[in-house]
# Entry
Amino acid sequence: MSTATEVASSSPAAPSEAKEIVVNSAVEFVAELAKLDLEEDTETFYRGHADEGWRLTPSILRTPNGPWVEHQLFRDMVAHEPQSFSECRSALDHLVQMQHYGLPTRLLDVTMNPLVALYFACEEATPHPADGAVYHFAVPEQKVKHYDSDTVSVLANLAKCASRDLLFCAYPFSNSEASFYDALSYDLPSEVLEKYRLHEALCIGQFMLPLYRGQLFPDINSIRNKSLARLIKSGEPLSSDYFRSKDPFKEVDSWVDELWRHILLKTPWPSWQASYLEAFNEQAKAGSLLHQIRGEKPHFQPLIQPYDLVSIFLVKAKYGNQRITNQSGAFLLFGLGLYSPRYEDGAWGPLYALKNEGPKVPEKWIKRKFIIPNDKKETIRKELANLGITDSYIYPGIEQYAKELKQRYSL
# Structure
């Protein structure tokens, strides 16, 4: 038996912090798993890829038009096969069923059984043969939800809303001290937090300019946003160009990605200021989503948490069919994307949450990436069959079992 080999990570699908380990047999795979130390306050899950270069992205986000037609796919599928969804009681139930039938969704399958993940990693890659991969995740407990969670209802019902109805501005365009960054305040270095709050203040200042056209800006003592007050106190003439010139992220490309990473890893966060939550949920664009959520939870309060909306959660769904049961299935449920428009002078506009893209799986969640050489896949599949992980176990059904019997008896 060959010895497992640790190699440097080079695939763009693998984070730099995750160690890649080549395994040549099921025995090696299990031996490597036995060496892993489970992290406290996390839950362990796995995912297998037939091609180690595939990204950890849900199917609805793999094509540019996926998010635009997601709500149509959802309704067309239910309208065409209503009997297949008669037992579904929530948007998540519908998405799980649609995932089962191969329709693109914002769910990404994972499993609690590493041998199931290894099975999928040993499938044939298309259109070209490739090495497979098994990802080992350690997900913070606060990011693990059950099927009846309010947070899950919020993210799952995104699938029923048109893109044009999902455009949330993260910044409170009012003379308020409340900030989108309040819940990050005790976790980030002060200099990093100050940059975020300064950008927010600049965008609010630009928004307020037209409201006071021909008049003086409000008295400095009445400006409740401290960052904005400091800018006005400088005495320089107020204009859009002035505010843009102060943008701390001007000519910087990755600031939104960095912010996203902070939000995804920030668990749990403190309570939001009531004034900010109220302003965020009063946006006209929240109405469509709240309407869908209340279809399954009539008493849902209009208190959508902004960070939840742009995050990823690992969801333990109901085992509604034998396939999910056998596969020890769970799902990563993806929220909205963060977006900031860029001006010609290199400055950035307000921060929005929108449907056109989604968050990326945090690097820190991925602890190992096991590489399965393509020429070892067939051998490993035979080893898995001896362990009871067969085609008919993964895909239960009489047709699959009949196919397996024909192979077993060389018919």
The longest strand covers residues 132-140.
